[in-house]
Amino acid sequence: MMRKIRLRNPVLFFSVFLVFFAGTASFSQTNSKTDPSKVHWYTLNQAIELARIAPRPIFLDIYTPWCGWCKVMDKRTFAKKSIAQFMNTHFYCVKFDAEGRDTVLYNGQQLINAAPVDGRNSTHPLAFSLLDGHLAYPSLVFLDEQGKRIYALQSFMKPSDFEKYMDFIEQGAYKKESYDDFYSGFPEKSPLKEKH
To answer: What's the confidence (pLDDT) of residue 69?
Structure first.
């Protein structure tokens, strides 16, 4: 004979179910580290620690939730398989909300968005610092293995344009010459096709 189970507190059961379901859905969306065709996103603290262990540059996509061009870049540029693979191989990638509430340890300082408000214009001090107060989104920032800024770009970038900058940084060319000098003949070569 089957015994009928009666929930004593259906609201509690439903709440636990929602928390579990939301947690697994969130995990499946953010755990791209097992899929080589998607960019592996880390927190800045994780990326800096990884760069200490196995040195390579750090890339930051500084965005805001309301930025339309940031979303376009996610769909058109970062979603391209060859770019994701190149980024995962040569950079530690960080997606950083410029108006977020994360506490970040950067260059020995604890940075907190002390007065976050809902909506626009509550800039995190890390974004303000890395962008020298010139706030435009998306902003793309490259840091060296020690976490020092190498290069910052402030614009949506098509995949073909972004490839050039990734190659410029990954090869360390920024140490010797300007971007324009380095890529005066770029159409003849494609760094992503050569390296993968």
So the answer is: 96
Look at the alpha carbons of 172, 173, 174, 175 in this order and tell me if their dihedral is positive or negative.
Answer: positive
Six-digit token string for 41: 């996103």
pLDDT for 119: 55
Q: pTM score, two decimals?
A: 0.76
Name the residue with tokens 């050039």: 164
Tell me how far apart the alpha carbons of residues 36 and 38 are, in angstroms, rounded to a whole number.
5
- Show me where the domains of the chain are located: 37-195
Per-residue pLDDT of 53-69, as tens digits, reads 999 999 999 999 999 99
Tell the CATH topology of 37-195.
Answer: Glutaredoxin (3.40.30)
Q: What do you get for the CA distance between the two ends of the chain, in Å?
A: 63
The whole-angstrom separation of Cα 193 and Cα 181 is: 21
| Token pair for 149 | 């800024």
